[in-house]
Design goal:
Elements lengths: L8 E2 L2 E2 L8 E4 L6 E5 L4 H16 L1 H4 L3 H17 L1 H12 L3 H22 L6 E3 L5 E9 L2 E5 L5 H14 L3 E5 L6 H12 L7 E3 L4 H10 L3 E7 L2 H13 L3 E5 L4 E5 L5 H13 L9 E7 L3 H12 L3 E2 L7 E3 L5 H13 L6 E4 L19 E4 L6 H4 L6 E7 L2 H8 L4 E2 L1 E5 L3 H10 L4 E4 L14 E2 L2 E2 L4 H6 L2 E9 L12
Parallel strand pairs: 7-8, 7-10, 8-9, 10-11, 12-13, 12-20, 13-18, 14-15, 17-18, 20-21
Antiparallel strand pairs: 1-2, 3-4, 5-6, 6-24, 11-23, 16-17, 19-22
Bound molecules: NADPH dihydro-nicotinamide-adenine-dinucleotide phosphate (NDP).
């Protein structure tokens, strides 16, 4: 791929003459520089926020019916599908994600999310409450105005759709801040928004680091709501800063999710689910299960099945259709994941497979590669059990009974997802209810639907994305009381 032009989006167009020191954007599979990214300082962020505020207040935007915004989103979904291969090429270069996961996972999910919110745009309902005979009591919803969508690097298109589609459906303007490491998909997405007829300035993009650009964006008083996806640590920081201006936030943060395999499960299918969940996108997926909790009566046999199957998993060239595991996406996350693997020696766990860097040939020698790794004999209290690695590392813990399985699953600080494998329907429901997670899959894993939310529990976040609830999070509430009797007493009271 040739070097990319990278520029923030201001008033729906590339701001190419912005003056700043460039940041090298790297293809993580090869280590090659694929573009130079400018950075928005506080005054550049202010200029972009002003553009968004003007666009939000413009008569053209305010005059649109909800269904017309829905039509724009339908057009956007069409464009994502029509230009899917161009999008795939960009994200291959920017994230090194395997091509089949892009074609069959990220791109279709992106358009499904946009279509869901296109249809939901004119389904927002207020309410009428009963009051005195002389008064009508109404509760309605209004957009916040300018909202900020702060994105991580792991799924640039899906995350952009998760923020932009509900924001547009509800009549807000939105400013995206992609990770500095992966701007290409977000910028392409914003250009498609313009092509779809979404007015200039309604979807803008700032570029730069979290500490400078992100901070300037979240603290700008004209930004009224923040939707953040990323680490728990940064999420907590954003929530504290937002509190200074009483801004609404929703935070989708980390996870250390468990897949529970009981002795009566279909072990072949369960093993496939375990490997897919742990190693898709090289483990860089917040809802992946990086802990396997397995009944100790089948523990050894199940581990053998996993080891046999993992040998068939292809690690390497992301452009080949049968590749499952690509590189880590950022140098920082690569160092973090390798750091966890360096620390396991002497901690009591056993490396069943992987454990370090694979040997790679050109052109991948300088890429950010880590072998899919399975660690057995892991116990609570070990860092590889308790902390999120966000890399291709699966920790296996054996449990003696259902109660212990639930207790181990819930023992971590996070509560995002879980998966239960058993043929006993009562147990499936009992365990699903007992897991302190936003979503639990039963005898399946990672199936995603725009209509159901994944509300994060514990340190995994706050608020909600996806589903109609995820759209309502982009609206503020308002009550209106109308008197229609000039003889009625004025003033407060419950008459
Ligand atoms: P970070 O929290 O480091 O960054 C997320 C985004 O926030 C980036 O765009 C980053 O900018 C920005 N940011 C950082 N500091 C600030 C700040 N002070 N103000 C405003 N913005 C800021 O996470 P990563 O991008 O490294 O993603 C990995 C983490 O995200 C993992 O822990 C994972 O669990 C979590 N995650 C959660 C998901 C979920 O849906 N629950 C999905 C995906 C990831 P920059 O990086 O450019 O400096």
């Amino acid at each position: 791929m040739t070097t990319q032009t990278i520029a923030p989006i201001l008033d729906g167009k590339e701001w190419t003459d912005i003056d700043s020191d460039p940041f090298d954007v790297i293809n993580p599979a090869t280590g090659q520089v694929i573009g130079q990214e400018p950075s928005c300082d506080e005054s550049a962020v202010e200029r972009i926020v002003d553009s968004s505020a003007r666009a939000f207040q413009s008569k053209d935007w305010q005059a649109l019916a909800a269904a017309e915004r829905g039509h724009m989103l339908l057009k956007l979904a069409d464009l994502v599908e029509e230009q899917a291969e161009a999008m795939v090429a960009l994200e291959l270069a920017d994230t090194g994600k395997p091509i089949t996961q892009l074609r069959t996972g990220e791109i279709p999910l992106t358009s499904a999310i946009i279509r869901f919110y296109a249809g939901a745009a004119d389904k927002v309902e207020g309410s009428i409450k009963s009051g005195s005979p002389n008064e009508v009591l109404m509760q309605i919803h209004e957009p916040y105005g300018v909202v900020a969508g702060i994105l991580p690097w792991n799924y640039p298109f899906v995350n952009a759709a998760l923020k932009v589609a509900p924001a547009i459906a509800t009549g807000n303007a939105i400013i995206l801040k992609p990770s500095q490491e992966t701007p290409l998909g977000t910028l392409a997405f914003a250009k498609l928004c313009t092509e779809a007829g979404i007015p200039d300035g309604i979807v803008n993009v700032v570029l730069g680091s979290g500490s400078t650009t992100g901070e300037a964006l979240i603290m700008n008083p004209a930004v009224k709501k923040i939707s953040f996806t990323g680490s728990t640590e940064v999420g907590q920081h954003i929530q504290k800063r937002a509190a200074e201006q009483m801004k609404m936030v929703n935070l989708e943060c980390g996870g250390k999710n468990a897949i529970l395999v009981f002795a009566d499960a279909d072990l072949e299918r369960a093993a496939e689910a375990v490997l897919l969940s742990a190693f898709v996108n090289a483990g860089q997926l917040c809802v992946s299960c990086s802990r396997l909790l397995v009944d100790k009566t089948i523990g050894a046999d199940f581990e053998s099945i996993l080891v046999d199957k993992i040998k068939k998993i292809k690690v390497g060239n992301p452009e080949e259709e049968d590749t499952l595991v690509g590189p880590m996406i950022t140098r920082n996350q690569y160092d973090i994941a390798l750091g966890y693997l360096d620390e396991i020696h002497g901690n009591g766990c056993k490396v069943l497979c992987g454990g370090g860097r694979p040997v790679m040939q050109e052109p991948f020698k300088d890429g950010l590669w880590i072998e899919p790794t399975i660690l057995s004999q892991v116990t609570r209290g070990m860092k590889v059990h308790d902390e999120e690695i966000f890399g291709p590392v699966l920790s296996v813990v054996r449990f003696k009974d259902e109660a212990e399985a639930i207790s181990i699953a819930n023992s971590v600080a996070y509560g995002l997802s879980g998966s239960v494998w058993t043929k006993d329907g009562s147990r499936a429901l009992r365990v699903s209810k007992a897991l302190d997670t936003g979503i639990t899959w039963v005898n399946t894993m990672l199936t995603g639907y725009p209509q159901i939310s994944v509300p994060p529990h514990k340190l995994s976040g706050t608020g909600v994305e996806l589903g109609v609830e995820g759209m309502m999070a982009y609206l503020k509430r308002k009550s209106i009381v109308i008197n229609h009797d000039d003889e009625a007493p004025v003033g407060w009271g419950l008459s």
